[in-house]
Specification:
Layout (H helix, E strand, L loop, with lengths): L3 E6 L3 H11 L4 E7 L13 E3 L5 H10 L4 E4 L6 H14 L2 E5 L11 E5 L2 H6 L7 E5 L15 E6 L12 E5 L6 H10 L4 E5 L8 H9 L2 E5 L8 E3 L2 H11 L3 H4 L2
Parallel strand pairs: 1-2, 1-4, 2-3, 4-5, 5-12, 6-11, 7-8, 7-10, 8-9, 10-11
Helix pairs in contact: 1-7, 2-3, 5-6
């Protein structure tokens, strides 16, 4: 039996850690695919492909042409389109697929959360009275703020917002997590933030803003995740490795 070829759709810290763990093995070949939305992606431990595939069918053809045996969707929990494409492509290519999706944050005592189904819904829920809003959803959804120009916005993203927003009161911060509780509290106080709009991304890198909001009594508009495509899903790198070994037993177990 030949070496297992695995395509990881990445862009998360979990994808990098999984790639690192698989790279240490000698029974598989790994390619990590990044969408290319971040101008300076982190260094990765395996060969990397940058850019999209051109849709679900094109991804399926890529999988078949490369003789891949496993597709792992380890994209961001809000990368909904690529996750749908991944599920379709794996089925079309007749190969196994796993989704590595870290669990979402859970409401704790002291949290002032209001659930929203989307960024536009969260902005609409701010109301008509001017508020100081920390829009912590990244640059992709920042333009939605233009429909509510009465508010003061603080927007943080890894890369610049592609076009300056048509807003009178907006400040931009370029920064990449992980963030600390102390620095987030300082940021919220300095900008007089009274509400945060955040995606329920899960993980630890950006959780400090949620902790800071709890400590300071600040409201959080929490954007919920869309339902995930129906493929085998795991929440940790360790669980993903176990699932891979279950699908493709190591050579020793196969008697090779």
């Amino acid at each position: 039996m030949g070496r297992l070829r695995i395509l990881i759709l990445g862009g998360t810290s979990e994808a990098r850690l999984l790639a690192e763990a698989l790279a240490a093995r000698d029974d598989c070949d790994i390619l990590l695919s990044l969408a290319g939305r971040t101008e300076k992606p982190a260094v990765q431990p395996v060969p990397v492909r940058i850019g999209g595939f051109g849709g679900a069918m094109a991804l399926a053809e890529f999988l078949k042409a490369g003789s891949y045996g496993l597709l792992i969707d380890a994209t961001h929990p809000f990368a909904e389109r690529i996750s749908k494409n991944a599920a379709f492509a794996a089925e079309a290519a007749a190969i196994a697929a796993i989704a590595l999706r870290r669990p979402g944050w859970q409401r704790l005592p002291g949290d002032r959360w209001r659930e929203a189904q989307s960024i536009p819904a969260a902005i609409a829920a701010l109301g008509q009275s001017p508020r100081h809003v920390f829009l912590a959803t990244g640059r992709q959804g920042a333009h939605h703020a233009e429909v509510a120009p009465q508010h003061h916005y603080l927007i943080r993203s890894v890369d610049p917002v592609e076009r300056p927003l048509r807003l009178a009161n907006v400040e931009y911060i370029l920064d990449r997590g992980p963030f600390t509780l102390e620095s987030e509290c300082t940021l919220l106080r300095r900008h007089h933030i009274d509400v945060i709009i955040a995606k329920n991304s899960g993980g630890t890198a950006t959780y400090a803003k949620i902790e800071a909001a709890r400590l300071l009594g600040i409201e959080v508009m929490m954007v919920a995740r869309a339902p995930s495509p129906i493929i085998t899903s795991v929440e940790t790198v360790e669980a993903a490795l176990a699932a891979i070994d279950h699908l493709f037993p190591p050579a020793m177990k196969r008697g090779v």
